[in-house]
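Form P-L/3: holo structure prediction, ligand arginine.
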Amino acid sequence: MSDALWGGRFTKTTDEMVNDFQASISFDRRLYREDIAGSIAHAAMLAKTGIITGEDRDAIVSGLRDILGQIDRGEFDFSVTLEDIHLNIEKRLTDAIGAAGGRLHTARSRNDQVALDTHMYLRREIVGLMELIRDLQQALLETADRHKEVIMPGYTHLQRAQPVLFSHHLMAYFFMLGRDFERLEGAYRRADIMPLGAGALAGTTFPIDREYVAGSLNFDRIYANSMDAVSDRDYALEFLSAAAIVMVHLSRLSEEICLWATKEFSFIELDDAHCTGSSIMPQKKNPDVSELVRGKTGRVTGHLMALLTVVKGLPLAYNKDLQEDKEGLFDTIDTLKFSLTVYAALIRGMKVREDVMKRAVTEDFSNATDLADYLARKGLPFRQAHAVAGAAVARAIERGVYLADFTLEELKELSPLFAEDIYEAISPETCVRLRNSLGGTGYDSVKRQLADGVKLLSEEAAAISRLSLRQIDPATLDLNGQPEPDQTE
Ligand code: ARG
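OUTPUT (holo model):
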């Protein structure tokens, strides 16, 4: 007979190679806090409904808290023969407290147990990520605020397009991350549904109380269908896709940082502490952080694709394939945490070269639209104004000058509508100032964005503290409110 916890019907022990292949303890051990919290709540429910005695419950709860301490202190010896975190903890509990430990798994299966753990784990990690996103937003907002009036070329097709405020450019990323925050809040809501009580797939013959468990673990909702409860990985997919979008945003920002830090652009200078050098080229200062974040986007989008592929075509209900959900999920969480943390530091540490940006918008044609707008304001149809401005650009290129270098006489040759006020109209400051439409790059518009940003940050802080209050700590999980043991015995 096999001595596995499920070994009753087996005549042989598992092949060692097969066991190594199927065991998940090397990675699912990080679910231990959630596994213990879930088991404590489950044991309390079993006692409350009279399925086990109050005495057994007390032994189970204190045994589990001992194990929690052992794992916290690094004193727990995880065994690969015991496959996963659930069996490792259950076996240690039974060794410690005897028969009562064997009653813990009543009315439960590892299928609903692992789903419960993953939901709780994700809930906790999502809140942490929301905090990190908010901190990066704060870094962007502070930097934008510090350089409120700095003008730089705005690009389309990576060609100089129109002057914009550097703060406007940074605030675009701020609002992008605001949507990421919202998406994570949504992913939290879908993780906040309790699967426990689904059993292996069909529910249980025991008179369990799922509301009680959901209440003690602070779940907002309970899965209405047991087969859905054990096979749903939508919440993980949704999280992974939200995470992939965060990484794509960081990757786009990374590309800009790498460009801006080149000699050719020189718009920013990264802090020495955030760069590395070359082992052969002594002059090098490489923007590794941005490059790596851009590169790590690949693995996160990969994890999303991997889980979509795992779930696609998977019949109900639990299949071992679903164990493949975890490594990608964990790696995504680690990658995001790291990327968001270093990025906030990078943004806070970078120097903005206001002089270079300023020079860039003086020595270019990004004011050509404004030259056309000027003529259009004087009554010329915009299409014609566009053609005049185009001709002016062509002539300037030919002479190796910029639009502001033309004399008024030269401009008048192109259109009699030009007057002395054209120079003021095409200065970078005017180009920016006049784009004061809602959401535009105008000085006042950007001030509004900064104010909206401050408001958003405080709303986000409130959301984070609301969700933080709902976090479960297995060490102090409150089991009050349950009937005394003698009522159930
Ligand atoms: N380690 C498993 C997983 O992550 C736990 C559930 C195992 N269930 C089972 N029927 N073998 O999915």
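COMMENT: Residues 110-146 form the longest helix (37 residues).
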